[in-house]
Amino acid sequence: MVPAKVIIGIMGPGENATPENNEMAFQLGKAIAKEGWATLTGGRRFGVMEAAMKGAIEGDGLTIGILPTDTDKDSSNNALIKIVTGMGSGRNYITVLSSNVVVVLGMAAGTASEAALAIKANKKVILLSQDEIAIRFFKNIGTYRVLVSNTVEDTIKQIKDYLAVSKAQ
Amino acid sequence: MVPAKVIIGIMGPGENATPENNEMAFQLGKAIAKEGWATLTGGRRFGVMEAAMKGAIEGDGLTIGILPTDTDKDSSNNALIKIVTGMGSGRNYITVLSSNVVVVLGMAAGTASEAALAIKANKKVILLSQDEIAIRFFKNIGTYRVLVSNTVEDTIKQIKDYLAVSKAQ
Amino acid sequence: MVPAKVIIGIMGPGENATPENNEMAFQLGKAIAKEGWATLTGGRRFGVMEAAMKGAIEGDGLTIGILPTDTDKDSSNNALIKIVTGMGSGRNYITVLSSNVVVVLGMAAGTASEAALAIKANKKVILLSQDEIAIRFFKNIGTYRVLVSNTVEDTIKQIKDYLAVSKAQ
Amino acid sequence: MVPAKVIIGIMGPGENATPENNEMAFQLGKAIAKEGWATLTGGRRFGVMEAAMKGAIEGDGLTIGILPTDTDKDSSNNALIKIVTGMGSGRNYITVLSSNVVVVLGMAAGTASEAALAIKANKKVILLSQDEIAIRFFKNIGTYRVLVSNTVEDTIKQIKDYLAVSKAQ
After folding, report:
1. CB pairs under 8 A between B and C
2. Which DSSP symbol is given to D145?
């Protein structure tokens, strides 16, 4: 028996991501790859999705894109495995269900839906570099499921801590 | 040619709804029915979903439940039309896509995902009796798409205003 | 407590339907409406879907379209209730789960998937005016779940018989 | 830029698979792995799905399971990458959309829906070791999209031929 891949979901904006979001997403993807984990995103070729998978590829990691479209055209060239859903933003529930831990970096409507769906699905959600309003909002609805981080290093540490606990159960 | 039903989605918590949420949902469903609009919810027999559909039935209205389960067992007796999705919270995208206007009453993880998905789908979202944090969070990501209301009467008025404009287009 | 609507799904081709398919779909929708049942289809404005809902409207019935698109644009004007899924042919599972009985009239790839998914979901499937190959194929995989009919009248009778038995359980 | 994985979907029954189906699925998964392609299935721990992924693992290949459930519990230990959909058989459309080529081995209701959905999505479908009725049924609805094979070797050859043509386009 072979062990299934640990999958870390990175949820964040596409076209509306800031340069800071993208830079941090790249570093996070690279760091996740170095741990031997797969990086999962919404698979589009923009913003946090694209940057995170590019970083993961640079770290020799595996990348999975859960595409909203019904073909793999226009998806990121950095998604090694392309899951084609044809469901538009309906695929956001699949992105969170398929992730062992969900990291939320940058904020837009789709990203917010993924954070909320992750809480609904009882996933551990790490809010990375979020503002005070977003943190308070998601803490109100997610309580202990919601963690806060400001750096890539701390995010990796929190993921490790969580995986250690969840494997021990 | 017959006109399609105008459908108003009421999104809110199930078991975690407060008595105030439920009372307001009942009155809102009744008021929506009196306008001749259909009331659409997540179709479960608890909280805001159940109360809104009960109110709509009392107002002789049509009710539609978009069920998360793969049978109609355990759904609300007040859903006249039961759409069975078998998709769990993945059905939240269908609830918002199928609504002409989305009203958000009460707050929990599933509800937050519906508000966010509605913004993503460019729907008009009315936050009814929400706290300051939720209003600021959704205004940040949804800007002009997000309206705020504190009473059933004002909510009905805002829906009417929006429908008048959207029909004129 | 009010009784939920009985929903009869009519599954068949869009653009590739034959004139005979469409004429029979129209008569079937009308007959279903006269029984007080709702007619559910894939909601597109072509072929069996369009004809069945047009017949149901002529019989003063309720019609439900489960749309593959992410808006209600380009859907049938004869769908009184439009459920917008944004899932493409992924919505075919919802069409069958939401139907108390599934009638299959005409044949194409989407229609075949609905017949197969209906069998998978343990629904009663009535093959209406199908050829020998289709009947043998679906009987092989669906056994007792699959009924055969050649007329609208007989289809209505088989639905009535099934509903009587399923309510008695 | 790194090349995305070629993904071959193997669709077949779970509990109802015959020993012959399972043996052929194992050999097919192994042969696919030797070509450097990923093997994609419905991810359950029974029948054709389990056997195909077990063969692929034995051939040092990558395996992807598109799970119907909303957790990865009870899924196959041979799925290295587990995509969790929570959609039941609604996930069948995702299994076919995500596959470059779809091989159909064994027959049951879920399998038939995948063959039909693959035709609908304009995928190349290879019917492996199917009976005359199934071949005639799917040829009727799928025409040139449907190929027939009786051995693992010929199936691999047909996949290669198709991939060569589709890359050349």
Report:
1. 77
2. G
